[in-house]
Amino acid sequence: MSDIEIRRATEADLPAIIAMLADDSLGAARESPDDLAPYRAAFETLAADPHQHQIVAVREGRTVGTLQLTVIPGLSRRGATRAIIEAVRVHRDERGSGLGTQLIEWAIAESRTLGCQMVQLTSDATRIDAHRFYERLGFEASHLGFKLQL
Questions:
Q1: What is the C-alpha to C-alpha distance for residues 56 and 8, in angstroms, rounded to an integer?
Q2: What b-and-e string marks burial along 16-28, b requiring 16 or more CB atoms within 10 Å of the CB?
Q3: What's the pLDDT tens digit per position in 107-149?
Q4: DSSP state at residue 60
């Protein structure tokens, strides 16, 4: 898939990113692609933070994949820095093409480059296919996660 460019997202990528975030049953209930104002504000915050990497995959000028990579320095594990992969999405026309694998492999390699000792991610408990995908890439289901909506 050498025709894919993986790069930092720009504000121009936001409509495509938000459309991908909203393009499933979970995202449809929590995203609002018709109002980009809150996403623009969030994007400005992300772009200003050197520990945040909003990434897109582009094929022939079209944004077809995205993820957010967050680098977190820490004290545990002898001061290990970890990366968290969030909001991985592949455009429905590209699913099954290997793009998801390429995005995750890019995130792992970039995490190493950034000095991380570990890469983590979470996946909604209902996304069984995604769990199998991450396990195929070497991730282990090692923790139980909790959320509290504020």
A1: 6
A2: bbbbbbbeeeebe
A3: 999 999 999 999 999 988 888 989 999 999 999 999 888 889 8
A4: T
